Amino acid sequence: MNRVAILAIAVFLGQGCASQDDVTAEGTTEPSEATPSGTSSVAASIEATSAPIAAPMPAAAPAATPSIGSMAAAPASAGPDATPDPAPAEPAPMQPAPVAPEPAQPEPMMAPMPMESGPEPVASGDGAQPTIPSVDGPCPDFRDGASISVGGHGGVLILAGRPGMNGPLLFYWHGTGSSSSEATFMLPASVRREITSQGGIVASFNGRQQARGGRDCSGTGAHNMNDFGAADQIAACAVENHGIDPRRIYSTGCSAGGLQTGCMAQNRSEYIAAVAPNSGGLTFPGRYSSSYIPHAFTMHGGSGDNVIVNFGDTSRTYGGTVKNGGGTWIECNHMRGHCLAPGNLYEAAWEFLKAHPYGTKSSPYEGGSLPGSFPNYCMLH
After folding, report:
1. In this structure, is residue 44 part of a structural domain?
2. Most buried of 117, 154, 288, 298, CB within 10 angstroms?
3. What is the largest CA-CA distance in the chain?
4. CATH number of the domain to which 134 belongs
């Protein structure tokens, strides 16, 4: 994040992050323990205010001041979670935000890498092996459509196929003000069907029932680092009881969930193979928890992708840590605004994740050619 953006956030936080109409999350947002000294001024500003950066967007009309991680693209038709919250009534579903107009002048972009059609490449994943957490307590029932409580986190939506098929596991993190059902309309049906048909699992978290007491490494308040404990138990039980392939555990999410995805890649690099944040990345870069660097496919909307911060900037901040660590990073600027990655781009993101199981030493895209199914605005860094 550049100096101007950091100063702007600090000034904004000094005036109070939430407007009178905002619905604030519980507690005070804290930066990650892994936050480097270069972001200490921002972290200090966050700790000084009682309102988290990510007050959820009100339903009837946009807040006077938006919040980091607001999920602007959630359609009004999204249904509630399988298990309703016992908490006070939730705000009405958000109406879809209008698509941000594309800039009159195209943004300066690097020329996309040449693409070739043909079969999708597959990596061997024959490098480092993942370290799957140990099962800690009773395992949940991975029943398709169930809403489970695990590791202090309630309302985790499960989409699951038949066990014992060595399928993948995909974690989904929603945007501020949204819910676990976001995965059912943000992930294309083709992706969800492929995962479940292979005996895989999609585990979509619900920030309104998040694990309490954890530090917030994204600066949004929508999720926190204690939620990774719930993810650990899901991963452990899914591998042991559902036959999930331990080398094919991935993460994605939109907005606040896209920032949580970048944070998870750094804090759970011992078993996360690759990630695909949508209008996400990192606000507070930190250290990776292992020597393995999960590969990354970042999606953002360019100059129109702004909610307090520019998510093109946070995507590039995160992508830089991947590239500098020796991982593969593909950046896709669709220039449609916040969280509005089109379906074919999310399908390309899923192809990328499949091509990078845990331990991939050399990406199949290393030679410079991206699959012909990838949009031509995607580039390999």
Report:
1. no
2. 298
3. 56
4. 3.40.50.1820
